[in-house]
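User: Some background: our group keeps a shared notebook of sequences we're curious about, and every so often someone picks one and asks for a predicted structure to add to the entry. Today it's my turn. The entry only has the sequence so far, pasted here. Could you supply the structure so I can complete it?
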Amino acid sequence: MALKDYLGIIDNGLKHLFDRKAVDPAKARRPLIRGIDRTLAQFKAGSTGTPTGWYRIRNGVVALTVKVGSDTFDINGVTTNHMRADRFEEFLAAMRAAVDAGEFDAELDRKGDGDAEVHIAKPKAAAISPEAAKARGIKAAASRKANREKRTTAS
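Assistant: Of course. Here's the predicted structure to add to the notebook entry:
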């Protein structure tokens, strides 16, 4: 084959990739991990957040805006995400584990412009003890009996 047959594989649009500095994933993760740790410590200390921080709490709901340097880090394509405050610690722990595992390396490489995804499963219903179940059953039976008596006396 002649050289002119290979000219189609030339892609000068790749120059920006060639010129870009290589990113050390561990180094790129550090600011995000520090931010998660700081936010978790503030939350555990009872802080409701600050206007310039990552989160604010109002009416039992957390508004979370993750920041890396001077950029925001979009999660699910959204800059500010909302969740119940009682799930916030769980979310931060899952996010930290995902960052440690390298799941956000591509987003960090693009400075947070991406569609980072962190999924938290819904909490399972807490099981009650056999004693509590029995007490609940007795209370329900008494309530049914009282309702029956009201219906029969009203007739």
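Suggested note for the entry: The radius of gyration is 27 Å. The longest strand covers residues 61-65.
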